[in-house]
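Below is how a single chain appears once it has passed through the pipeline. First comes the sequence as given, then the structure the pipeline wrote out for it. We keep one example in the README because the format questions we get most often are answered faster by looking than by reading.
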Amino acid sequence: MPISYGTVGIVYNGRVGKAGELARSIAEQLGNARNTWICAVAELEAKKAQVEGTHLVVTVGGDGTILSTARVAAPFGVPLLGVNMGRVGFMAELTPAQAASNFPTLLESDEIWMEERTMLAVETVPDRSSPSASQPFHALNDALVGRGAVPRLARVEVSIDGVRLTRYTADAVIVATATGSTGYAFSAGGPILHPSTSDLVVTAVAPHISFSGSLVIPATCVIELTVHTDYQAVLSVDGYVDLDLQDGDLVRIRRSEHRAKFLRFHPPEFFYSTVRERLGLDAGNQMS
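Resulting structure:
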């Protein structure tokens, strides 16, 4: 399915060496064939109006650049094409070398397909008796409720669809999408989900005398995390929102109405090769 998008945005991470240079190279390659704009990811929030009229956004950086861009692009249904200049690159599709030459030709490939991924909508409620909730934050990876600056374990009660599951005493409780299952949730012992699934993962970080397994649940469920603590706790959403929480505060998490879209050249099963390479699963398992 060749792509003939008229307006292409290019978002780069200014803290990554040569990312800006590569972004400008991509714009030059596109030339007059398409309208293009470029900005650093740190300036993207101010570019929302421009994103709305864009047909494709190319990200040049790591997974963090993709997370920040997806949050802005998803409400407008704008797909992303990631160029990996980070350390992990689970979500990116192209290498810098692939993007540095013949970029317009890539967009004309018959191998292109569109992938959609589940996102989270995260809102806070001062306490269970309050009818009001915050405007939702949208996340592609995960939401985390855990201890704040004081090095004391947080007590977080987990309820699913109004049914109390358990109370964790842990560093944190993570709710992750399939995309986020390869991130912090995985490092905490959670399972890896294929990105095509809409299921969510609930995982505790370093639980103390608590249920230590992860729970995989359908995306139709509503998850509530209630803080019980004498110390400050914190809510982190995809690493871009950090809110202080107090005793009794509730965080409600559900599937977002928005979906992140990605332009892909590799087939869906390429995900398993990415997992093998990024996590070094071949190490120590070579046949002699």
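The chain has seven helices and 16 strands.

See the next section for the split statistics.
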